[in-house]
Design goal:
156 residues, 10 strands
Length: 156
């Protein structure tokens, strides 16, 4: 995984970690970033085409979106995971923007929105789509089509 050194910091800053929940599954998915917008910024061209999906024992989930920004900038969409019409759904209630790869310059914002993972990434391409709005009214849109390769299990 391209951003493996950041994994411990991400797991410790999650709202689930604050409630002493352990990671149930941790997967890296790769593919083509189709859309990545944060407010007025179109980040699609620096989207790394790689996400980290962490589901915790309390059913919270983090979807970390990496960028190729030299500063190490990243975003985490966090909320409650559930199944919806046979797909994985994430009800977003928080968005974290990591200003750099240190994990020390993160900005958390309350938010509302949803991500859906349509399809089974273990058996071929699957589509992630996300839309959310933070408490300040900033909108976020993200879409990634996985490349069909098996997700990398980070707990093995």
């Amino acid at each position: 995984m391209k951003f493996l050194p950041m994994l411990p910091a991400l797991l410790l800053t999650s709202p689930a970690a604050a409630q002493n929940a352990d990671p149930h599954s941790v997967f890296t998915l790769r593919g083509e970033c189709q859309t990545f917008v944060a407010g007025t910024e179109d980040l699609t061209s620096i989207c790394a085409g790689e996400v980290l999906q962490v589901v915790y024992t309390d059913s919270r989930m983090d979807l970390s979106i990496w960028t190729d920004d030299p500063s190490g900038r990243f975003f985490v969409l966090s909320g409650t995971a559930s199944a919806e019409n046979g797909n994985l759904a994430l009800a977003i209630d928080q968005i974290t923007e990591g200003k750099d790869g240190s994990g020390n310059n993160n900005v958390d914002a309350n938010a509302s929105g949803k991500c859906m993972l349509a399809g089974d990434p273990t058996s071929g391409p699957a589509q992630y789509t996300c839309e959310a709005t933070d408490a300040a009214g900033k909108t976020y849109k993200f879409a990634l089509l996985t490349d069909g390769s098996a997700p990398e299990n980070m707990l093995d």
